[in-house]
Amino acid sequence: MVQSKMLQAPKTTDTRERLLEVAETAVLAKGFSATSIEELIAAVGITKSGFFYHFKDKNELAKAMMLRYLAHDQRVLDEIFQRGDELNEDPLHGFLVGLKMFAEMMQNLPDVHPGCLAASFCYQDHLFDKEIRDLNAKGILRWRGRFRERLDLIATRHPPRGQPDFEAMADMAATLVEGGLILGRALRDATILPRQVLLYRDFIRAIFVAA
Amino acid sequence: MVQSKMLQAPKTTDTRERLLEVAETAVLAKGFSATSIEELIAAVGITKSGFFYHFKDKNELAKAMMLRYLAHDQRVLDEIFQRGDELNEDPLHGFLVGLKMFAEMMQNLPDVHPGCLAASFCYQDHLFDKEIRDLNAKGILRWRGRFRERLDLIATRHPPRGQPDFEAMADMAATLVEGGLILGRALRDATILPRQVLLYRDFIRAIFVAA
DNA sequence: TGTACATCAGTGAACGCGCGTTCACTGATGTAC
DNA sequence: TGTACATCAGTGAACGCGCGTTCACTGATGTAC
């Protein structure tokens, strides 16, 4: 069975996966419609008909890209904040550690982070059907849910200062990442994003830690 | 003279301006390369050759769009923060008032803010030449300069808590706007952006206002 | 005031290239019995 | 173990359409003298 084979030794040279990888790089650089099937197959080394074996049309490529991105995104966040909690049992301190590690991860990328597919797609959303736009929204709602849960949990042990807008504070994580990626790209400065994440951490601390 | 005529009564039906207006809407919806010259001239009611009278090629359209956007952006910000200062002589309180007005302005837009051309272009920057990318960077550096100056000025009168990263705090304004626009678009929720701006205001207050 | 010329804001027709998509076909591997 | 059939992962050639760009030309308005 192909399935079980893939489980024990995932083929890194899987053609479909390579198409998606090359496509993501190209789309983040030029946008979806400027990314031609022609250039993807040239990079991967198959013919055009080979492409249409894997994706019935270009829209299905977009959908597969989005699904791949979402899965990756979830894996990375799960891992980081889980590690933050392992080192600490208080939800606030675990969160602060997680944010620190997140900032460090952004800092240690070889060069400027290539960007976020969700942002790229959202600025081209008229190209896509509702299904893809919904996937994109789902990804962002997952960020909101993840951070919102954490803030609520922290608040049960650490009374917050004032009456903060918890939903907006949860969204602020995704907001700063998306915005930080844009500034980092436009100014070609890889330090911008991690520093924004650290400011978010400062803000969280200012809200929950007694002075 | 055409110039003086335009000064006394700016032609609102100026063809070139209408092309730029229509182009901006289309680019924010689909991206630059999916926006065809054909659709622009159809919307404005001229022929293709008429388009090439105004712009020597498509790249020059992009440049003109960027310049128009930068000028508009500067005008709006100048006006808002000037009004904030008029009502108040302390630089901190003037800033807080300006931020409040800024948030209100975002809130009162008819529907979801259409987005930021700088963000759209930055996720397609391989389509453009260095001149356009530099214009984009210049626009963002102007935000940084504007907010950085203000923070420095405030700090002379209100000693900040801790050792804040003022550059990152200045960038945070643009970051939250860019990120807030993306979330707002993806979730079709026009309240997200203004609430992020209000959080920024809370953060500024937390840094500078004694408890 | 009239004439000659220049500029402005376009028109109309044609171009060639690259794009996404389709269709009939194929060689290698997997599965049933 | 051999044979028949099915599926996988593509190939190769052709398609038509839309795109950005070019070129020669034009009618209306402005300017010099």
Q: How is this structure best described in words?
A:
Chain A is an all-alpha fold and 211 residues long. Chain A has one domain (15-208): Tetracycline Repressor, domain 2. Chain A is built from ten helices and no strands. The first copy, chain A, has helices spanning 2-8, 15-30, 37-44, 48-54, 58-86, 91-107, 117-122, 130-157, 166-187, 192-208. The first copy, chain A, is elongated and about 65 Å long. Chain A starts with a helix and ends with a helix. Chains A and B meet through helix 2, helix 7, helix 8, helix 9 and helix 10 of A and helix 2, helix 7, helix 8, helix 9 and helix 10 of B. Chain A binds a DNA duplex (33 and 33 nucleotides) through helix 4.
- What structural class should be given to the helix and strand makeup of chain A? mainly alpha
CATH uppermost class of chain A: Mainly Alpha
* Net shape of chain A: elongated
Count of β-strands of chain A: 0
Q: Could you give the distance between the termini of chain A?
A: 60 Å
What does the oligomeric state look like here? homodimer
CATH architecture of chain A: Orthogonal Bundle
Q: State the share of residues found in helices of chain A, binned by percent.
A: over 70%
Query: Could you name the CATH topology of chain A?
Result: Tetracycline Repressor, domain 2
Task: Note the main attributes of this structure.
elongated; Tetracycline Repressor, domain 2; DNA-binding; homodimer
Quick take:
Chain A is an all-alpha fold and about 210 residues long. Chain A is built from ten helices and no strands.
